[in-house]
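1st attempt posting a full record on here, be nice pls
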Amino acid sequence: MNNEKTCAKCGAAKPLDEFLAKGNQCKTCKAEYNRKWRKANPEKAAEHNRKWREANPEKEAERVRKWYQANREKAAENNRRWREANPEKKAEHARKWREANPEKAAEYSRRRRARKAGVESDGHTTADQHDYWRSKGIDPETCYYCNRPVENWETSEGDHVIPIVKGGPDTVENIVPCCPKVRGSKVRGLGNCQSSKKDKLLFTEWTPPIFRDEATLDGVNLAEADRRKAYLLDIMNRFQETETRKKG
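the predicted structure (as C-alpha coordinates):
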Protein backbone atom coordinates (compact mmCIF):
# COMPACT_ATOMS: atom_id res chain seq x y z
CA MET A 1 0.00 0.00 0.00
CA ASN A 2 1.36 3.41 -0.99
CA ASN A 3 1.63 5.64 2.08
CA GLU A 4 2.80 8.69 0.16
CA LYS A 5 1.31 11.15 -2.27
CA THR A 6 2.88 13.68 -4.62
CA CYS A 7 1.79 17.30 -4.22
CA ALA A 8 0.50 18.79 -7.46
CA LYS A 9 1.86 22.21 -6.43
CA CYS A 10 5.37 21.67 -5.07
CA GLY A 11 5.95 18.21 -6.57
CA ALA A 12 7.20 16.75 -3.30
CA ALA A 13 6.25 13.23 -2.20
CA LYS A 14 4.81 13.42 1.30
CA PRO A 15 2.98 11.12 3.75
CA LEU A 16 -0.79 10.94 3.28
CA ASP A 17 -1.44 12.75 6.55
CA GLU A 18 0.24 15.82 5.01
CA PHE A 19 -2.73 16.14 2.63
CA LEU A 20 -6.36 17.12 3.17
CA ALA A 21 -9.06 14.56 2.49
CA LYS A 22 -9.81 16.30 -0.81
CA GLY A 23 -7.43 17.86 -3.34
CA ASN A 24 -3.97 17.12 -4.67
CA GLN A 25 -2.05 19.86 -2.86
CA CYS A 26 -0.26 19.24 0.43
CA LYS A 27 -1.40 21.14 3.52
CA THR A 28 1.56 23.53 3.36
CA CYS A 29 0.89 24.53 -0.25
CA LYS A 30 -2.86 24.75 0.36
CA ALA A 31 -2.31 27.01 3.37
CA GLU A 32 -0.06 29.30 1.34
CA TYR A 33 -2.62 29.42 -1.47
CA ASN A 34 -5.39 30.32 1.00
CA ARG A 35 -3.20 33.03 2.58
CA LYS A 36 -2.56 34.69 -0.76
CA TRP A 37 -6.23 34.40 -1.75
CA ARG A 38 -7.41 36.04 1.51
CA LYS A 39 -4.90 38.86 1.00
CA ALA A 40 -6.10 39.43 -2.56
CA ASN A 41 -9.82 39.07 -1.69
CA PRO A 42 -10.32 40.50 1.83
CA GLU A 43 -14.06 41.17 1.45
CA LYS A 44 -14.81 37.71 0.06
CA ALA A 45 -12.63 36.14 2.75
CA ALA A 46 -14.46 38.05 5.51
CA GLU A 47 -17.84 37.02 4.15
CA HIS A 48 -16.74 33.40 3.83
CA ASN A 49 -15.49 33.42 7.44
CA ARG A 50 -18.73 35.02 8.67
CA LYS A 51 -20.88 32.38 7.02
CA TRP A 52 -18.68 29.61 8.41
CA ARG A 53 -18.94 31.00 11.96
CA GLU A 54 -22.73 31.23 11.68
CA ALA A 55 -22.94 27.66 10.38
CA ASN A 56 -20.46 26.28 12.94
CA PRO A 57 -20.96 28.18 16.25
CA GLU A 58 -19.66 25.36 18.46
CA LYS A 59 -16.50 24.85 16.40
CA GLU A 60 -15.91 28.61 16.33
CA ALA A 61 -16.33 28.86 20.11
CA GLU A 62 -13.85 26.03 20.60
CA ARG A 63 -11.40 27.61 18.17
CA VAL A 64 -11.58 30.94 19.99
CA ARG A 65 -11.21 29.25 23.39
CA LYS A 66 -8.07 27.41 22.33
CA TRP A 67 -6.59 30.54 20.79
CA TYR A 68 -7.19 32.55 23.98
CA GLN A 69 -5.59 29.83 26.10
CA ALA A 70 -2.52 29.76 23.86
CA ASN A 71 -2.29 33.57 23.45
CA ARG A 72 -3.42 35.08 26.76
CA GLU A 73 -1.05 38.06 26.66
CA LYS A 74 -1.78 38.84 23.03
CA ALA A 75 -5.54 38.52 23.65
CA ALA A 76 -5.35 40.87 26.63
CA GLU A 77 -3.38 43.42 24.62
CA ASN A 78 -5.80 43.17 21.67
CA ASN A 79 -8.76 43.70 24.02
CA ARG A 80 -7.06 46.66 25.68
CA ARG A 81 -6.38 48.36 22.36
CA TRP A 82 -9.93 47.71 21.17
CA ARG A 83 -11.41 49.21 24.35
CA GLU A 84 -9.23 52.30 24.04
CA ALA A 85 -10.16 52.75 20.37
CA ASN A 86 -13.88 52.02 20.86
CA PRO A 87 -15.00 53.46 24.23
CA GLU A 88 -18.63 53.90 23.12
CA LYS A 89 -18.89 50.35 21.75
CA LYS A 90 -17.25 49.04 24.92
CA ALA A 91 -19.78 50.85 27.10
CA GLU A 92 -22.70 49.61 24.99
CA HIS A 93 -21.37 46.05 25.03
CA ALA A 94 -20.99 46.19 28.82
CA ARG A 95 -24.50 47.59 29.24
CA LYS A 96 -26.07 44.85 27.12
CA TRP A 97 -24.10 42.18 28.97
CA ARG A 98 -25.26 43.49 32.36
CA GLU A 99 -28.87 43.54 31.17
CA ALA A 100 -28.60 39.98 29.84
CA ASN A 101 -26.66 38.73 32.88
CA PRO A 102 -27.85 40.68 35.95
CA GLU A 103 -26.85 37.97 38.42
CA LYS A 104 -23.34 37.56 37.01
CA ALA A 105 -22.94 41.33 36.82
CA ALA A 106 -23.88 41.71 40.50
CA GLU A 107 -21.51 38.92 41.53
CA TYR A 108 -18.67 40.41 39.48
CA SER A 109 -19.23 43.86 41.01
CA ARG A 110 -19.37 42.45 44.54
CA ARG A 111 -16.20 40.37 44.14
CA ARG A 112 -14.37 43.29 42.53
CA ARG A 113 -15.21 45.53 45.50
CA ALA A 114 -14.02 42.82 47.88
CA ARG A 115 -10.71 42.40 46.04
CA LYS A 116 -10.18 46.14 45.92
CA ALA A 117 -10.82 46.44 49.66
CA GLY A 118 -8.66 43.41 50.42
CA VAL A 119 -11.34 41.64 52.46
CA GLU A 120 -12.24 37.96 52.74
CA SER A 121 -14.54 36.55 50.06
CA ASP A 122 -15.98 33.04 49.81
CA GLY A 123 -16.78 33.37 46.08
CA HIS A 124 -20.46 32.56 46.57
CA THR A 125 -23.10 32.99 43.88
CA THR A 126 -26.54 34.55 44.35
CA ALA A 127 -28.04 31.05 44.38
CA ASP A 128 -25.62 30.04 47.15
CA GLN A 129 -26.65 33.10 49.13
CA HIS A 130 -30.36 32.33 48.81
CA ASP A 131 -29.79 28.71 49.88
CA TYR A 132 -27.90 29.91 52.95
CA TRP A 133 -30.65 32.34 53.90
CA ARG A 134 -33.30 29.66 53.61
CA SER A 135 -31.23 27.33 55.79
CA LYS A 136 -31.33 30.06 58.46
CA GLY A 137 -35.07 30.67 58.07
CA ILE A 138 -34.50 33.99 56.24
CA ASP A 139 -36.84 34.89 53.37
CA PRO A 140 -34.83 36.12 50.34
CA GLU A 141 -37.88 38.06 49.13
CA THR A 142 -38.19 40.23 52.26
CA CYS A 143 -35.93 42.99 53.58
CA TYR A 144 -34.38 41.74 56.81
CA TYR A 145 -34.13 45.28 58.18
CA CYS A 146 -37.64 46.65 57.55
CA ASN A 147 -39.75 43.73 56.25
CA ARG A 148 -40.58 45.40 52.93
CA PRO A 149 -40.63 43.25 49.77
CA VAL A 150 -37.31 43.14 47.91
CA GLU A 151 -37.77 44.06 44.26
CA ASN A 152 -36.02 41.74 41.81
CA TRP A 153 -35.06 39.55 44.74
CA GLU A 154 -34.02 36.72 42.39
CA THR A 155 -30.95 38.72 41.34
CA SER A 156 -30.50 40.85 44.47
CA GLU A 157 -27.09 40.44 46.10
CA GLY A 158 -28.38 41.60 49.49
CA ASP A 159 -26.60 43.91 51.91
CA HIS A 160 -23.33 43.41 53.76
CA VAL A 161 -24.18 43.84 57.44
CA ILE A 162 -20.60 44.91 58.07
CA PRO A 163 -19.90 46.98 54.94
CA ILE A 164 -16.91 46.10 52.79
CA VAL A 165 -15.64 49.65 53.33
CA LYS A 166 -15.50 48.77 57.05
CA GLY A 167 -13.54 45.62 56.37
CA GLY A 168 -16.60 43.37 56.40
CA PRO A 169 -16.14 40.05 54.56
CA ASP A 170 -17.92 39.19 51.34
CA THR A 171 -19.33 35.94 52.73
CA VAL A 172 -22.83 34.50 52.97
CA GLU A 173 -22.73 34.93 56.76
CA ASN A 174 -22.31 38.71 56.46
CA ILE A 175 -25.16 39.39 54.02
CA VAL A 176 -28.92 39.76 54.52
CA PRO A 177 -31.80 40.55 52.12
CA CYS A 178 -32.24 44.29 51.74
CA CYS A 179 -34.69 46.57 49.91
CA PRO A 180 -33.54 49.58 47.84
CA LYS A 181 -34.92 52.11 50.35
CA VAL A 182 -32.90 50.77 53.25
CA ARG A 183 -29.83 50.26 51.10
CA GLY A 184 -30.01 53.90 50.00
CA SER A 185 -30.38 55.01 53.62
CA LYS A 186 -27.32 53.00 54.61
CA VAL A 187 -25.22 54.31 51.72
CA ARG A 188 -26.11 57.89 52.63
CA GLY A 189 -25.39 57.25 56.30
CA LEU A 190 -21.96 55.80 55.64
CA GLY A 191 -21.21 58.41 53.00
CA ASN A 192 -22.00 61.28 55.36
CA CYS A 193 -19.73 60.09 58.18
CA GLN A 194 -16.41 61.88 58.70
CA SER A 195 -14.33 58.78 57.96
CA SER A 196 -14.64 55.14 57.03
CA LYS A 197 -12.17 53.82 59.60
CA LYS A 198 -12.68 50.14 60.24
CA ASP A 199 -12.50 50.56 64.03
CA LYS A 200 -15.67 52.70 64.16
CA LEU A 201 -18.84 50.88 65.19
CA LEU A 202 -21.47 50.54 62.49
CA PHE A 203 -24.23 52.02 64.65
CA THR A 204 -22.21 55.20 65.12
CA GLU A 205 -23.05 56.16 61.53
CA TRP A 206 -26.14 54.16 60.55
CA THR A 207 -28.69 52.20 62.53
CA PRO A 208 -30.91 49.57 60.84
CA PRO A 209 -34.65 50.35 60.95
CA ILE A 210 -35.28 47.24 63.02
CA PHE A 211 -33.29 48.86 65.84
CA ARG A 212 -34.95 52.26 65.47
CA ASP A 213 -38.68 51.77 65.41
CA GLU A 214 -40.47 48.42 65.58
CA ALA A 215 -43.59 50.07 64.15
CA THR A 216 -41.90 50.14 60.76
CA LEU A 217 -41.79 46.33 60.70
CA ASP A 218 -45.30 45.62 59.48
CA GLY A 219 -46.26 42.00 59.92
CA VAL A 220 -43.36 41.18 62.26
CA ASN A 221 -44.14 40.16 65.84
CA LEU A 222 -41.87 41.02 68.76
CA ALA A 223 -40.35 37.54 68.91
CA GLU A 224 -39.34 37.66 65.23
CA ALA A 225 -38.03 41.21 65.64
CA ASP A 226 -35.90 40.10 68.58
CA ARG A 227 -34.63 37.12 66.57
CA ARG A 228 -33.54 39.38 63.73
CA LYS A 229 -31.85 41.79 66.11
CA ALA A 230 -29.97 38.94 67.75
CA TYR A 231 -28.88 37.62 64.35
CA LEU A 232 -27.51 41.02 63.28
CA LEU A 233 -25.81 41.63 66.62
CA ASP A 234 -24.18 38.20 66.45
CA ILE A 235 -22.70 39.08 63.05
CA MET A 236 -21.35 42.37 64.36
CA ASN A 237 -20.01 40.87 67.58
CA ARG A 238 -18.19 38.09 65.75
CA PHE A 239 -16.67 40.65 63.40
CA GLN A 240 -15.47 42.78 66.31
CA GLU A 241 -13.96 39.74 68.00
CA THR A 242 -12.12 38.82 64.79
CA GLU A 243 -10.79 42.36 64.40
CA THR A 244 -9.68 42.42 68.05
CA ARG A 245 -7.77 39.15 67.62
CA LYS A 246 -6.04 40.55 64.51
CA LYS A 247 -4.90 43.62 66.41
CA GLY A 248 -3.76 41.53 69.37
